[in-house]
Amino acid sequence: MPYVLISTQIRLETGPTMVGDEYSDPAIMTYLGARKTTMLGNNFSEYHVDDPPRLVLDKLEKLGYRVVSMTGVGQTLVWCLHKETIESHT
């Protein structure tokens, strides 16, 4: 999975950070120490960590991910990261 989205609420820059949805790579979620939760009333799950976004970004960089965009949406900060995939051409 070459793309990852992470987000946090503006007043919660120190965490928690949302790091994935129910379709996220389980190996990456384990590496980040994420826990899967489903909020009451939602029909989907999300992965969260207690770390602030900066620490999550540092960890994902070690896996080869790079920030390609960042934005604020209402009271939410969102980062989109991408990891280059190496394709073999035979």
UniProtKB/TrEMBL annotation:
GO terms classed as biological process: negative regulation of biosynthetic process
Protein name: GTP cyclohydrolase 1 feedback regulatory protein
Gene Ontology MF, one: GTP cyclohydrolase binding
The keyword Membrane is assigned to this record: yes
UniProt similarity note: Belongs to the GFRP family.
One Pfam family here: GFRP
A cellular component term, taken from the record's GO annotations: nuclear membrane
Localisation: Cytoplasm, Cytosol; Nucleus membrane
UniProt keyword terms in alphabetical order: Cytoplasm, Membrane, Nucleus
Superkingdom: Eukaryota
This protein's record includes keyword Cytoplasm: yes
